[in-house]
Design goal:
five-stranded parallel beta sheet, homotrimer, 11 helices, alpha/beta
Chain lengths: 306, 306, 306
């Protein structure tokens, strides 16, 4: 089976069969990263451009490693070191990069919808590596891959997502993906961090974290973006930790074999206590490993692999 | 035929036969970028260092893609992320890089003459990727390649270059190259943006843009560097746009089959109106595509290819 | 013979046989950098991560070139362009990178001991590329390689290290290495730049540079870190140059065939006069060349080569 689409812009527009294809392909790539020679010639001659308008360590590195393991060439462009700020429009930058004939453009941008705009103006495949508070599809795919790996299924599981739901592209992509795959999704967080009309997304909403995570198969904690934090949203980090942070006592409310996820980077002692982050239920580092495999799968499938 | 020189420092010192050789070679490389596997093993084991003392997206990316399509290794060094500012002299930095045995050093520097100085102290080939307001030879070569591609010749054509001639390395390199290749070059711009002794370069000078572009085969608009802009040079961007910006009405003064060029990044609505930039005469994105091919040709020829 | 260790954290814990093995291996790699095709397939499929928490041109470039000459893939992460500052702990960053399955992590960090901490939490090989004022083992190895190359031995030679001994990781690593290899090490510098208990390291201490370098076979000048310089340590750069700078007159106090070393970047006219830096005794650029070979050797040996 082939992935019959040009781009990966969001989970919202992916069909269940497409998600399954991506996860199956990613699983088959896990093995490459454990070989002695961690490289296959599959994408030799393919150029992957990482175009990052927001700083990122793990996502950019993950894409770069994924590309290199497939023998693709990578070009990193980040606003920190480039002249993308010289007054040129985003579309002109895009058309210029297109004219250099890369094959796949990976875009992170602070503006929701930027990858969609890019996709419309360039003939290359576009992968959304996070756009504003909108979507972060590769994160949701690696999360679903991790759930499937640990639980052997997604359908029927109770997944609790806790934190700043309103401003989280990770939450949004996971809500789209997990509900699509048949999971029961519960969200928990202070009302100031809950988007309007959240109930229309087919999730159960709780304002007390204990209610949100009760009997959960999976708890997915979101990062509190302390750098953006505005005291009108929440009085203090300490109060957030007390009311919404995940600690061992709260984990006990979930199923006995619950797994704990976090997209990183973690604020230890804020949204998650260190003993939970490092505890036996935590699959946080498996998520990272699966991230490379998911990105390999996407680069491969968008290049016409099957 | 081989390119019998160590460096590409400027168009001024290139002979007509050398320019033809570079353009012919670049043409033959256009095809590589359209293949499914966009990579040839020609420069395997060659190391290209991109040493950028000024920020750049398109030029650095273009060189990096060019090198990778030829299977060369690339090392990027930019002052934004490195310690080149630690008080070491430029020549010491150069000698240090030389001692690591790269093969070709691509240098962008804000100081006119920096590549020439580099070339004298290192045994490696040096390519000038723009030095101050002096020269930008790879830009002029890709411009000439684009003109030849669209017009099948350069000799005898009327090329009008419009904008801040005094501070433009693009203008200077193109004036050297185009006059050498037999084109008739006209420059237009406010008198405050016209270099002294410009007439000695063998060009026709106009201070009204309409006069400059009348009957032109090619109009080459220069970027107004709004970030450097000093109100003593020009009263306002709006006034500049009115008096010197290229719009559809002005294009009508040129030949019917005129082509419009711009080295990018464009300030839409300042030196060029959006409908002209995106219109049928615009070859701005062809310039970008040809830029990769020209840089492949230079890397290849300087490595001893023929 | 194989290098039976996971990491290179410092010279202090290397045995003489290990140092000899590294230097012998490095010597055999010198030839690769002089070939027309400067690349061997030895480390194909190996991923080297350059994780730099301090800016660096020469060390990062040297590691990157070394890796590429062995056909390894390189991933550069620098705090200047990444989100490593987002509040994540260093160990969490490390565990995340580990989860992406690189093979070797090269770390530069301003905190002494950071590579040791990294080494304890990740299964990958760690190479210390400089940690605070603690160690810079690859610099000391390339220095010892240069001494051996020029003098055919290390044992019995008199090596004078002059400058800010207290804050220099280069000095510390060289003192460990050179005394281990049988050299007689003398240090010279103002008392405010001399570490407490320096005599316990088996070196001779002088506070007058002339005494320190008398009859030296090797003079190793340290960089004065003018950017960190605090006037409580030394009154002025000019006074430093007069009292501790190496000039031609002082060189005459050393052995006739003395060689002059400097780890770079140099402050010409401060710790070293230009005529000495560029003079016949200077082996400063040989150090840089040998740096690539030493790093190739380490990448090779830590990957299981023999």
């Amino acid at each position: 089976m082939k992935l019959a689409r040009k781009d990966i812009l969001g989970i919202r527009d992916l069909a269940v069969e497409e998600i399954n294809l991506i996860l199956d392909t990613a699983e088959s790539f896990i093995e490459v990263s454990t070989r002695e020679i961690k490289k296959v010639p599959t994408l030799r001659g393919v150029t992957v451009m990482n175009l990052f308008y927001e700083p990122s360590t793990r996502t950019r590195t993950s894409f770069e490693i994924a590309a290199k393991r497939l023998s693709a060439d990578t070009i990193n462009i980040s606003t920190a070191t480039s002249s993308v700020v010289k007054g040129e429009t985003f579309i002109d930058t895009a058309k210029n990069l297109e004219a250099m004939n890369p094959d796949i453009i990976v875009l992170r941008h602070s503006a929701a919808g930027a990858p969609h705009m890019l996709s419309r103006v360039v003939r290359q495949s576009v992968i959304n590596a996070g756009d504003g508070a909108h979507e972060h599809p590769t994160q949701a795919l690696l999360d679903m891959m991790t759930i499937r790996e640990k639980k052997k299924r997604i359908a029927g599981l109770k997944v609790s997502i806790v934190g700043d739901i309103a401003h989280s592209r990770v939450a949004r992509s996971n809500i789209y993906g997990l509900t699509k795959m048949g999971a029961k999704v519960t969200v928990g967080g202070p009302s100031t961090m809950m988007p309007r009309f959240i109930d229309r997304l087919g999730v159960e909403v709780h304002h007390h974290v204990d209610d949100a995570i009760r009997d959960a198969d999976i708890i997915m904690m979101l990062r509190i973006q302390t750098e953006r934090q505005d005291m009108s949203v929440f009085p203090s980090l300490r109060e957030y930790a007390n009311l919404f942070g995940l600690n061992r006592k709260r984990v006990a409310l979930a199923k006995e074999d619950v797994i704990i996820m976090h997209p990183g980077p973690m604020n230890r002692g804020v949204e998650i206590s260190p003993d939970v982050a490092d505890g036996p239920y935590s699959v946080i580092l498996d998520q990272v490993t699966n991230g490379v495999a998911v990105r390999m799968a996407l680069l491969y499938l968008l290049s016409g692999g099957n």
